[in-house]
Amino acid sequence: MKRPTMNDIARRAGVTKGAVSFALNNRPGVSAPTRRRILAIAEELGWQPNSAARALSGGTAGAFGLVIDRPARTLGLEPFFMQLISGIQSELITDATPLVFTMAEDQAAEIALYRSWWARRRVDGVFLVDLQAEDARVAVLEELGMPAVVIGAPVGTGRLPAVWSDDAAAVSAVVRYLAGLGHRRLARVGGPARLRHTAIRTAAFDAAVAELGLTGRTVEADYSGERGAAVTRALLAQPARPTAILYDNDVMAVSGLTAAHALGLRVPADVSVVAWDDSALCELVEPPLTALSRDIAAYGAHAARRLREAAGGRAVGDRQDPAPRLTVRDSVAAPPASPAPLVSPASPASPASPVRAVRPAPPA
After folding, report:
1. pTM (2 decimals)?
2. Residue ranges, CATH 3.40.50.2300, the chain
3. What is the spatial distance between Cα 60 and Cα 53, in angstroms, rounded to a whole number?
4. How much is the average pLDDT of 47-52?
5. Burial zone of 347 (CB within 10 Å; 0-12 exposed, 13-18 middle, 19+ buried)
6. Residue limits of the HTH lacI-type domain (predicted)?
7. Residue 296, Cα to own-chain centre: how many angstroms?
């Protein structure tokens, strides 16, 4: 079926196209009865504004953008971004604003996309994620005058507003909790070192370990299960291996748990495991993982609200959400009195995968 146009509405209503434009855009120039008649006909015909034409005429695009520069294989497995996007959508859906979502191969490609979107008026603003220590995107967005909201700490964000939570406080809380159980040798499997939030967490981990007189180290990984397992095996093969490991996401933590079991180690009797960003994955393994929990969907919704306000011309400041809280489950305990021997991952004595069966729900 042909898409209805303003000309179709004008013919049906017996008025000019200009009168239809006045009515649909809530501008003066038509009487109240005529406006009501035009709006009723537009609804009957299923008319919707043409966003491209509206943008070319100097109006708004009526959409926001999100570009993520991460490998697709890791993004598809990580619950964080799915929850974040669901939170953004929950806010944007209130006025039917679409989210233009895509991925970029690197930061240069992401910047080129922003320039193209802004020149063509494809979006009214963007969400900026995964801020880097040396990040060229902030200056470009400020130069373009493109509304943007940073999802992350307000460090190196220029004039762009940020929605964030205190990662440093969360890391410190985990280290103190583990120290309180008696752990003296800790390790952290972090995300890519180029990311600003990774640097913030690493600095907080180092500071807390030093303050409490513990031994600790951070090893860089990439959020993938494969890398998380490989780093875990290397850490646990050390003569003075850590008795507790904090992972920067849930996927690496689950893979680390599996790797520990494959080496013949018990969790938490031989090594304790803590995950960042609690998710269903953390509860579907045996033992269920102690994790840092936060309302990621609310985080996304707050960012969407800020971006809508910024795109509407309002002055928008930073918003700090509550810091992640530690949800204690069965993967953490006091450290062992003496280290347990390792077994070969290929040994028949190696425990099976820690993922436990989930009983299907009974039919309704």
Report:
1. 0.79
2. 64-165+297-322, 167-293
3. 10
4. 64
5. exposed
6. 4-58
7. 7
Q: For the chain, how far is it from start to end, CA to CA, in angstroms?
A: 39
Which option is the CATH number for 64-165+297-322: 3.40.50.410, 3.90.320.10, 3.40.50.2300, 3.50.50.60?
3.40.50.2300
Domain span(s) for CATH 1.10.260.40 in the chain: 6-48
Q: Cα(286)–Cα(140) distance, rounded to whole angstroms?
A: 47
Mean pLDDT (the chain, rounded)? 88
User: Which H or E run contains 117?
Assistant: helix 107-120
Pairing of strands 215-220, 185-190: parallel
Which tens digits make up the pLDDT trace of 307-324? 999 998 999 999 999 999
Tens-place pLDDT, residues 139-186: 999 999 999 999 999 999 999 999 999 999 999 999 999 999 999 999
**274 close to 332: Cβ distance less than 8 angstroms:** yes
Judging by beta carbons within 10 Å of its beta carbon (0-12, 13-18, 19+), is residue 181 exposed, middle or buried?
middle
Higher pLDDT, 258 or 118: 258
Q: What is the largest CA-CA distance in the chain?
A: 90
What is the CATH number that goes with domain 6-48?
1.10.260.40
**May I ask the CATH architecture of the domain 167-293?**
3-Layer(aba) Sandwich (3.40)
Q: Are 271 and 342 in contact (CB under 8 A)?
A: no
| Rounded distance between C-alpha atoms, residue 274 and residue 284, angstroms | 14
pLDDT by residue (tens digit) across 187-232?
999 999 999 999 999 999 999 999 999 999 999 999 999 999 999 9
